[in-house]
Design a protein that fits this description.
Layout (H helix, E strand, L loop, with lengths): L8 H17 L5 E4 L10 H28 L6 H29 L4 E3 H34 L4 H4 L2 H14 L1 H11 L9 E2 L6 H5 L7 H34 L4 H34 L5 H26 L1 H18 L1
Parallel strand pairs: 1-3
Antiparallel strand pairs: 1-2
Length: 336
C-alpha cells in the first residue's frame, strides 16, 4: 500500500495525552457503556448480534475479494481501481472500528468501553468517514477529466497523480477528525455514561456532557458540513459538467456507454451522502425521530455502503466483471 500506516501515530498520542488530562481534571466518568438500540428487548439480543456478525462477515468477504482481485490482476492497476482500493480499505477499517464492539455488546453483554477507547473510536469513526468523502471527490474528479477532457486524461490522471491524491486524502482527513475530538474531550462528563448509539460518535458523546452543548456542537456541525458538503459541491459540479458533455455526444449509443461508466460511482456517492446529510441537517434544525429509528438510519448508512460497494465494483466496472466471469467459467469447467 502506498500510504504509510504510521500516519495515525501522532494524532493518537496527542489524543491520549489530552484525554488523560481530561479524565484527571474535568470528568467523573472513567468509562462509557454502549447501549446500542435502547428499545431492543433482551430476548432479541442474540438475533441482533447474529445479524450484525453476518453483516461484518459480508463486508470482510466482499471487500477482501476486491483486494485479492486487485493484487492478482495487473489489468486493474489503473487510476480508478487505485481509488476503489482505497475506498475498500477505508470501508473495512471503518467496519472493524465499529462492529466488533456492538456485536460483543449484544453477544456477550460487554458494552463497556474505556474513556480513552471511546474517544479513540470516535476519532476513527469520523476519520474514516472523512477519508471516504475525500476519496469520492477524487473518484468524481477522475470521471470528470475522463469524460470532459478525454484527450488530456492520460496526462492529467495517471497512477502517480492518483497515489498522491489518495495519500493526501488520508492525511487531510486527520484535521477535522482531530478537531472534533479535541473540542469534545475537555467537557465535564459527570452524569450518565450510557451512549445511545452503536458506537462512539461526536453527538452521542457530547450529549452526555454536564454543560451547555451548543457552543461545542455548532463548530462540530460546521466541520461536518465542510467535510460533507465541500466534496459534495465539487461532485455535483463534476457530474453536471459530465451531463452537459454527454448531451453533446451525437450517438445515442455513445451517450449510454459514457453514462454507464458513471452509474456505479453515482450509486456509491448517493449511498454515502444522502442519508448522512439528512441526519446531520435533521438533528440541527429541530426534526426529531425516536432514538431507535435514528440509530437504525445511522447504522444503515454506516454499514450498507461497505456491504453493497463490492457488488457495485464487480457488476458495474467492466474489467472486474470480465475477471469474475472468466473465473466463474473456469470453476464450471472444473466442476464438469
Amino acid at each position: 500500500m502506498y500510504y504509510n500506516i504510521n500516519v495515525h501515530y501522532f494524532p493518537v498520542l496527542v489524543l491520549r495525552e489530552h484525554i488523560t488530562m481530561s479524565v484527571r481534571n474535568h470528568s467523573f466518568v472513567t468509562a462509557f457503556v454502549i447501549v446500542g438500540f435502547p428499545g431492543l428487548q433482551p430476548e432479541f439480543y442474540g438475533l441482533a448480534s447474529t445479524v450484525l456478525f453476518l453483516v461484518y462477515c459480508c463486508i470482510l468477504i466482499g471487500n477482501v475479494v476486491v483486494i485479492i482481485l486487485f493484487a492478482t490482476h495487473n489489468v486493474l492497476h489503473k487510476p480508478m481501481y487505485f481509488i476503489i482500493l482505497n475506498l475498500v480499505v477505508s470501508d473495512v477499517l471503518f467496519s472493524t472500528t465499529t462492529l466488533p464492539k456492538i456485536i460483543a455488546r449484544y453477544w456477550f453483554q460487554a458494552g463497556a468501553i474505556s474513556f480513552f477507547g471511546c474517544f479513540l473510536q470516535m476519532y476513527l469513526v469520523h476519520y474514516f468517514g472523512s477519508v471516504t468523502s475525500l476519496l469520492l471527490l477524487i473518484m468524481a474528479l477522475d470521471r470528470y477529466v475522463s469524460i470532459c477532457f478525454p484527450l488530456r486524461y492520460p496526462m492529467i490522471i495517471n497512477n502517480s497523480t492518483i497515489h498522491i491524491l489518495n495519500a493526501t486524502a488520508w492525511v487531510l482527513a486527520h484535521l477535522p477528525s482531530l478537531s472534533m475530538v479535541i473540542r469534545a474531550y475537555p467537557l465535564p462528563y459527570c452524569d450518565s455514561n450510557k451512549i445511545m448509539q452503536c458506537y462512539c460518535d461526536h453527538i452521542a458523546i457530547t450529549t452526555l456532557a454536564c454543560t451547555d452543548r451548543v457552543p461545542y456542537s455548532f463548530p462540530a456541525f460546521v466541520v461536518a458540513m465542510v467535510v460533507l458538503l465541500g466534496p459534495l459541491a465539487f461532485i455535483i459540479f463534476s457530474y453536471c459538467s459530465i451531463i452537459v458533455a454527454v448531451v453533446q455526444i451525437a450517438s445515442p449509443q455513445g451517450r449510454l456507454k459514457t453514462l454507464s461508466t458513471c452509474s456505479g460511482q453515482l450509486i456509491i456517492i448517493a449511498l454515502y451522502y444522502l442519508p448522512r446529510c439528512f441526519i446531520y441537517l435533521a438533528s440541527n434544525i429541530g426534526i426529531r425521530f425516536s432514538t431507535d429509528l435514528r440509530i437504525v438510519v445511522i447504522m444503515l448508512y454506516s454499514l450498507l455502503p461497505p456491504m453493497i460497494n463490492p457488488l457495485i465494483y464487480c457488476l458495474r466496472t467492466d474489467e472486474i466483471k470480465q475477471i469474475m466471469i472468466k473465473r466463474f467459467r473456469r470453476i464450471q469447467v472444473h466442476v464438469q
